[in-house]
Write a structure and sequence with these properties.
Largest sheet: 8 strands, mixed
Mean pLDDT: 96
Number of domains: 2
Shape: globular
Strand order of the largest sheet: 3-2-1-4-5-6-7-8
CATH architecture of the largest domain: 3-Layer(aba) Sandwich
Number of helices: 15
CATH superfamily of the largest domain: NAD(P)-binding Rossmann-like Domain
Length: 429
C-alpha cells in the first residue's frame, strides 16, 4: 500500500520505517530540510534503537522523505498525521500544527478523485478529531468525511527507546473511525503485525491513549511515593515492587522507583487529561496527585544528597541525562531540575550520557562540562549521581574519583560487587 506520513519525529519516523519494512511504500513529509536529507541518506535524525538498521534496509526503495505534501498525498492511499501536540503550562494541548496540516491536506483532497484516508496518529484530547480535524478537512476540500474521504484515529503506544519493538509487536491496534471503509484500510496496514484489533469511535480511541499513559504514570508515582516511605523505614522498595508485581492483577511493569518520569508523553498527557476534565466539570484528584508526586521527586534527590554531602564547590559526576535509557530525549527529564538544584547549591557538574549530551548542551550551555567517557566524568569527582538506567553503569570503575561516594536513583548498581571503599546510597531503599 502507498502511504504518506506527515511529521518525522519519534512517532512519524518509527511508523514510516516499520511500515516500509513490511513492504509498504512510504513517503515521509517534513518541513525540516535537514531531517529530510538525513532520512534520504539513511541517517536517523533521532536516536532510537534499531531505527538506523531499518532505514538502511528500506531507503530509498520503500521509504523516502520530501517536503512536497501535494505529491505525497496524490501518490498515496492514506496519510498519517504525526505532528507534535505540545502542552501549555495549564495543560491545554497546542493544536496549531495539527490544524495547519489538516487544512493543507484538505486543500489537496479537493482535487483528488480517489478515496483517501486521513489517519490521526498524533496524541490529541478526546473530541479533537471530530471537532477540529474533520471540520478543517471538510472546509478546505469542499467534501464530506465518511463519504468522499475517510478519517481514522489510530493512537500510538510506543515507548521511547523501545519504539521499534513496540511497533512491531503491539499489544493491540486501536482504530477509531467514522466509516468501515476507512477502518478496513487501516486494519489491512497492520495485517502483518498479528495483534488484537479494537475498532471504536474517534473519541473513544483518543481517550484510550490518554487513559493508558495516565495509568502508567500513576504506577510510577505510586511506587515512588511508596519508595519515599520505604527509605524512611529501612525497606528496599524494589523488593516490595517485586513482591506486588508477581500478582497478575498488578504486574511488575512501571514499578521501578526513581527520580520521576519525564519525556514527551507522560507529563504532557496527564496534564492534558486534567485540563480536559476541568473543562467538563470534573476535579481529577488522583491525576493531580500523580503530577505532584512526580514534581516533588527530584527535590527528594536533592534533599538526600544535601543531608549527606557538602555540595558547595564539590565536583559531582552526573551519570545519565536522558529521561530514560535508550533515547537522547531530555524533555521533562528529572536530570534537568536536579542539575539546576545542584548548580544553585554551588556544585561543579561533570555530566555523562551515551546519547543526550547534545540535547543537554542546548539547556545548560557552558554551566556544566560534558563527557562522552564515563571515566572522564568521574575524574576528581567527590560524588557520582546516577540518574538514568543505562545498563553500562552497572559495572563502573570508580578509581578516577577523588572520593568514592555513589548516589544511585535507579537501583542499578550491584552492591555486592562494589569495592569496600565505596560509599553507596540509594533514593528509595
Amino acid at each position: 500500500m502507498n502511504v504518506s506520513v506527515v511529521g518525522s519525529g519519534y512517532v512519524g519516523l518509527v511508523t514510516a520505517a516499520c511500515f516500509a519494512e513490511k513492504g509498504h511504500k512510504i513517503t515521509c513529509v517534513d518541513i525540516d530540510p535537514q531531517k529530510i536529507d538525513k532520512i534520504n541518506n539513511k541517517i536517523p535524525p533521532i536516536y532510537e534503537e534499531g531505527l538506523a538498521e531499518i532505514l538502511e534496509s528500506v531507503v530509498p526503495h520503500n521509504l523516502n522523505a520530501t517536503d512536497d505534501l501535494l505529491e505525497a498525498i496524490n501518490s498515496s492511499q492514506a496519510t498519517f498525521i504525526c505532528v507534535g501536540t505540545p502542552c501549555a503550562a495549564d495543560g491545554q494541548i497546542d493544536l496549531t500544527h495539527i490544524k495547519k496540516v489538516s487544512e493543507q491536506i484538505g486543500k489537496i483532497l479537493a482535487d483528488k478523485k480517489n478515496y483517501h484516508v486521513v489517519v490521526v496518529k498524533s496524541t490529541v484530547i478526546p473530541g479533537t478529531t471530530q471537532d477540529h480535524v474533520i471540520p478543517l478537512l471538510e472546509s478546505a476540500s469542499g467534501k464530506t468525511a465518511g463519504k468522499d474521504f475517510g478519517v481514522v484515529m489510530n493512537p500510538e503506544f510506543l515507548r521511547e527507546g523501545k519504539a521499534i519493538i513496540d511497533f512491531k509487536k503491539p499489544d493491540r491496534v486501536v482504530i477509531g473511525s467514522i466509516d468501515d471503509e476507512s477502518a478496513d484500510l487501516v486494519e489491512k496496514l497492520y495485517y502483518h503485525f498479528k495483534a488484537p484489533v479494537l475498532r471504536v469511535d474517534l473519541k473513544t480511541a483518543e481517550m484510550i491513549k490518554y487513559t493508558a499513559n495516565s495509568l502508567l504514570a500513576t504506577k510510577v508515582s505510586f511506587i515512588n511515593e511508596v519508595g519515599n516511605v520505604c527509605k524512611k523505614i529501612g525497606v528496599n522498595v524494589y523488593d516490595v515492587a517485586q513482591g506486588i508485581g508477581l500478582d497478575h492483577r498488578i504486574s511488575p511493569h512501571f514499578l521501578s522507583a526513581g527520580p520521576g518520569f519525564g519525556g514527551s508523553c507522560f507529563p504532557k498527557d496527564v496534564s492534558a487529561l486534567i485540563y480536559k476534565a476541568g473543562e467538563v466539570g470534573v476535579q481529577p484528584i488522583l491525576l493531580n496527585a500523580v503530577l505532584e508526586v512526580n514534581r516533588n521527586q527530584p527535590e527528594k534527590v536533592l534533599e538526600l544528597i544535601e543531608k549527606q554531602h557538602e555540595i558547595k564547590d564539590s565536583k559531582i559526576a552526573v551519570l545519565g541525562l536522558a529521561f530514560k535509557a535508550g533515547t537522547d530525549d531530555v524533555r521533562q527529564s528529572p536530570s534537568i531540575p536536579i542539575i539546576e538544584g545542584l548548580l544553585d547549591l554551588g556544585a561543579v557538574i561533570q555530566a555523562h550520557d551515551f546519547e543526550a549530551l547534545d540535547a543537554t548542551k542546548k539547556i545548560f550551555k557552558d554551566k556544566i562540562t560534558y563527557h562522552s567517557e564515563i571515566k572522564d566524568a568521574l575524574a576528581g569527582a567527590e560524588l557520582a549521581l546516577i540518574l538514568t538506567e543505562w545498563p553500562q553503569y552497572k559495572k563502573m570503575d570508580f578509581t578516577p574519583m577523588k572520593e568514592k561516594k555513589i548516589f544511585d536513583t535507579r537501583y542499578i548498581i550491584n552492591q555486592d560487587l562494589l569495592p569496600e571503599d565505596v560509599e553507596y546510597e540509594g533514593l528509595c531503599w
